[in-house]
Specification:
By secondary structure, the protein is α+β, with helices and mostly antiparallel strands. It has 5 domains: 1-141; 198-279, Arc Repressor Mutant, subunit A (Orthogonal Bundle), CATH 1.10.10; 367-558; 577-642, Helix Hairpins (Orthogonal Bundle), CATH 1.10.287; 656-722, Transcription elongation factor, GreA/GreB, C-terminal domain (Chitinase A, domain 3, Roll), CATH 3.10.50.30. It has 33 helices and 14 strands. The longest helix has 30 residues, at 575-604.
Length: 747
């Protein structure tokens, strides 16, 4: 931020007598100059600084005492304070002198009664650095009615009254009129804007600023940058709206400003809206100075950003042996630094090196492209890369080794997120690997293992669906409902929501349910009706769509459950699991939805919404967040937290620990908790799991049939008892902080 410097006041300087070359005569010369105070004070202070630099500190201290005495005698308070400040600067890091500097500062203020207490408000008695104490004291000396100031909380203000006796100052801030603060706080928090600060212009010449906003938006931005320093477009908007530019006028203003700034060689407009707009000392050019700065960069991300900038600049860069060597050396350095621990950065660095025609392989220990021909690293890279870079990365990898790249992609397809899966399939299809990919999809459908990503991809590519897995619509529909019953987060939650929208689409419902028998369609609707984790509005929409397509199913919705003799099992979950979803709901409501609303506002200001990727992405994310918020709200209202302490233990069910004895003699122990509970390390399973449902209501000693890969296995329910202490502790423990709904799913 540009802030005014507190200058030493004084009239035109009196002619200084020449400084004698003979140091033995300096004492006599100095005493003669004291007669010319206060005009000669700045020159004498510079002379004393020179003496300390030459090692004559003791002599400078003595002369400083004399100078202070005369300045106090002549009531030159500001010059006296500056004299003490200069002397304190000669003794840096000497805390035992701190009390002396405060005593001398009080002495400097002594000629003016109402200023005598200001030193006590300047931090001398605290651990604040001495330079900061004098900065505060100088600011307090300037606190007079009419002084313009800035505060990080209240913004721009004008001093109305300063009461040194009671240690208070009253300031009219734009956000709070007649605001009182202590002198100690004012000295610490206030800043003094320079005369050309944009807020000073608005206060003193509002008509001129309004005309500037209308006629020269680029100059307004330049003034804002000179006033506040480098700003992102978002931060600039917050600074100017609504005080300088009306909210409704921002888009027009910003479009005009960008147009003007692009033509200004002394303004650097960033490629990304998260980067700052900067004022330059000289016109930007990819010259020796630019590459010298590049060559000194030691951090991976800035080196990557520099290489991105070179690619965008294209023909603007004049390459020679020196610049190529500098760029290659930095990219090699960054590639070694990123390594396999940061695969996305490494991939981008190697791709950029190729794009710039630079060779890095000669450098020692620089990873080569074949490092990505590893399943674990390939998945991690596709997970970490921005979506827009996934396709270029895979195309680049295929140029290095097409056969191994295709083979590896085929092996990891089931583990890829939807965006990565889409790009991988695009590459496989255009490289004649359709038949092998088809086998992977057929196997996943046949084994009932196709998850949300595979299903979504198939439904979006009906040509492949009909060719690879024909006549499987009933199976696919069942897999869809299975995926919709799962509790996903992040990238998978977005994919799940997109899959759920299919069940509300009439064309999909007609295509999917038409090949089914009446019984299959009825079972499908029953599953939709009972599916957990669905917001009620979504469930009703899906059921309504199905019944509109197949009116004969209306009876399924009308059926009421038969009366039962005993009350249904309570809808409960562990306190830990309930708290985890409660934290998710609070974070979405209080943090993520407000954040995405701000991002939408920023993206909307970037121009034509039809071509605005940031706006579309933000709106899609807002839809995901709102949907998830509604889901969590419905879930939290339906399920109650429990510690499972007062439940019966005579039969297998909620809150019990069971042991199963198999025919081959081995035992398995499980702890049955509530609807949202699962923790493999403690053998915790949900009461809705197939195993829990199979043993529910059974007593110890009874035979049970539990689910297995071949359909079911007979075993004995050996024990039914209390939950172990470790599980009881887990139930009431605090869950980890929730992940962002928009966060990427880990591989």
């Amino acid at each position: 931020m540009k802030v005014a410097v507190c200058r030493i006041p004084g009239q035109k300087m009196t002619q200084q007598d020449p400084i004698p070359s003979d140091s033995s005569k300096h004492d006599e010369w100095f005493l003669a100059q004291l007669e010319k105070l206060p005009d000669m004070a700045p020159a004498l202070l510079d002379f004393l600084d020179a003496q300390t630099a030459q090692g004559r500190l003791e002599q400078a201290d003595q002369w400083s005492e004399l100078l202070l005495d005369v300045l106090v005698e002549r009531a030159a308070v500001a010059l006296a304070v500056e004299c003490v400040r200069r002397r304190a600067s000669w003794w840096p890091g000497v805390p035992e002198k701190r009390a002396l500097w405060m005593k001398l500062a009080q002495r400097a203020l002594s000629p003016v009664r109402e200023l005598q207490g200001l030193a006590s408000h300047s931090g001398f008695e605290s651990p604040v650095p001495m330079a900061e104490c004098f900065r505060r004291l100088k600011l307090l000396l300037l606190l007079k009615p009419g002084l313009m100031c800035l505060d990080k909380t209240w913004g721009f203000g004008v001093v109305q009254r300063a009461d040194t006796f009671y240690g208070r100052v009253t300031i009219d801030f734009e956000k709070k009129r007649a605001h009182e603060m202590s002198l100690s706080y004012a000295a610490e928090a206030l800043q003094l804007p320079a005369a050309d600060h944009i807020l000073v212009l608005r206060h003193q010449q509002p008509d001129e600023l309004r005309a500037l906003v209308k006629d020269d938006a680029a100059e307004v931005v330049r003034r804002a940058l000179r006033s506040f320093g480098a700003l992102t477009a978002d931060a600039l908007q917050k600074r100017l709206v609504p005080d300088v530019v009306g909210e409704a006028d921002w888009k027009r203003f910003w479009d005009a400003a960008r147009k003007g700034l692009k033509q200004d060689p002394l303004v650097k407009l960033p490629a990304k809206r998260t980067e700052t707009i900067q004022l330059l000392q000289k016109a930007h050019a990819y010259d020796a100075d630019w590459f010298a700065v590049f060559a000194r960069e030691r951090h991976v991300q800035p080196i990557l950003d520099h290489s991105d900038e070179l690619i965008v600049a294209g023909a603007e860069v004049t390459w020679n042996e020196m610049t190529r060597a500098a760029a290659a050396e930095r990219l090699a350095f960054a590639a070694k630094g990123a390594g396999p621990r940061h695969p996305a950065q490494l991939a981008r660095l190697l791709i950029n090196a190729d794009a710039l025609g630079l060779t890095l392989t000669a450098q020692a220990h620089v990873p080569t492209p074949d490092v990505f021909l590893n399943a674990k690293l390939l998945i991690a890279t596709l997970h970490d890369l921005p979506v827009r870079l996934a396709a270029p990365f895979l195309d680049w990898l295929a140029t290095k080794d097409a056969a191994r790249t295709a083979e590896l992609l085929l092996s990891v397809l089931p583990q890829l997120e939807l965006s990565a899966l889409t790009e991988a399939m695009e590459l496989l299809l255009k490289s004649d690997h359709s038949a092998t990919a088809a086998q992977t999809f057929r196997a996943s459908i046949a084994m009932q293992k196709a998850e949300v990503e595979f299903l979504l991809w198939l439904f979006r590519h009906l040509e492949q669906l009909n060719a690879w897995v024909p006549d499987t619509w009933p199976v696919l529909a069942g897999l869809v409902l299975t995926e919709l019953e799962k509790d996903y987060m992040g990238e998978r939650l977005r994919a799940q929501n997109q899959l759920r929208e299919l069940v509300e689409d009439e064309a999909w419902v007609r295509t999917t349910l038409s090949p089914m028998s009446d019984v299959q369609r009825r079972d499908f609707l029953e599953r939709v009706k009972k599916a957990p984790n669905w917001a009620e509005l979504d469930r009703r929409s899906a059921m309504g769509c199905i019944v509109r397509m197949f009116p004969d199913l209306a009876g399924v919705l009308a059926n009421k459950p038969e009366a039962v003799a005993a009350p249904a099992r309570p809808a409960v979950t562990a306190r830990r699991s309930y708290r985890a979803r409660q934290l998710q709901f609070e974070k979405i409501t209080n943090v993520e939805i407000p954040r995405i609303a701000r991002e939408i506002g920023v993206a909307r200001a970037h121009g034509d919404l039809r071509e605005n990727f940031e706006f579309k992405a933000a709106k899609e994310m807002q839809s995901v967040l709102v949907r998830r918020q509604a889901e969590l709200e419905e879930m939290l209202s339906r399920i109650q937290p429990s510690d499972f302490r007062d439940l019966p233990r005579d039969r297998a069910g909620l809150g019990t620990c069971i042991a199963l004895l198999y025919a081959d003699g081995h035992r398995e122990t499980y702890n049955i908790l509530g609807e949202w509970d699962r923790e493999e390390s403690l053998n915790i399973i949900s009461c809705n799991s197939q195993l829990a449902l199979a043993v529910e209501g059974k007593r110890a000693g009874e035979a049970v049939r539990v689910p297995a890969n071949d359909g079911g296995t007979e075993c004995q329910l050996a024990e039914v008892g209390d939950l172990p202490p470790a599980v009881q502790a887990w139930i009431v423990s605090e869950p980890p902080p929730p992940e962002d709904v928009g966060a990427e799913r880990t591989a």
